[in-house]
Amino acid sequence: MQGTLYIIPTPIGNLEDMTLRAIHVLKEVDLVLCEDTSVTQRLFKEYDIHTKTSVFFAQTKLKNIEKILKILEEGYRIALVSDAGTPTISDPGVLLVDRVKTELPDVKVIALPGASALTTALSASGITSAQFVFLGFLPHKKGRDTLFKEIAESKRTIIFYESVHRIEKTLDSLSKIILPPRKVAIARELTKMYEEVIRGDIKEVRLHFHKKKEKIRGEFVVIVEGK
Ligand code: SAM
User: Fold this and answer.
1) Hey, which of 69, 95, 133, 173 has its CA 20 to 30 A from 209?
2) Ligand 1, pocket residues at CB < 6 Å
3) Is the omega angle on the peptide bond into residue 92 within 30 degrees of 0, that is, cis?
4) How sure is the predictor about 1, in pLDDT bands with cuts at 50, 70 and 90?
5) What CATH architecture applies to the domain 117-224?
């Protein structure tokens, strides 16, 4: 039997955003690797999934990765999920996929399409995705200023993830380098009850969050139009 590693996207807020195929595969595989068992168990309960889980996160030790490779080599089917969205997109898993691709040519890697804050935010923003650059999370200190300079000069749409702790600081920094009429969109709490996409020039967007402090809550994606 040929081992298979499935990459399975899970909802970024709304539990209904599971595909039928994702549910089916999670029920059928021999093992599900997840970041946090309690988060994954909530999803499993919703969809009556009873597959065995094991924790896998960015710091997973090499020894444990070896174990996973061995299981795949023996012909078992493993699915990888993260807490939310698509695994390997600013989430753990890329090292595992890389090792499988390099070392186990007989093991299939099958990625399912599905939820990701990246594509959901882009499609809701009305800012062109014809060409875009995804920066993941910006570094907190080293390299941060250089990236802001790159964003200022970019002819392509820029998109990055931001945490609730830094969103105001990031908007302050953007307001120094992005001049109107360049558009900025902040997608917040996508697919959840208080989801919104605030769009305008940087002054308008910054003012919106300054005036409504209660909106500095939840999860954010920042999109900046190219120059
Ligand atoms: N792999 C995930 C994906 O495909 O979307 C991203 C994981 S990354 C660790 C988490 C970041 O994604 C959050 O800090 C936030 O920037 C963004 N994010 C996740 N869910 C979101 C949501 N519902 N609304 C807005 N941003 C979200």
Assistant:
1) 133
2) 12-13, 82, 84-86, 89-91, 116-118, 161-163, 187-192, 219-221
3) no
4) confident
5) 2-Layer Sandwich (3.30)
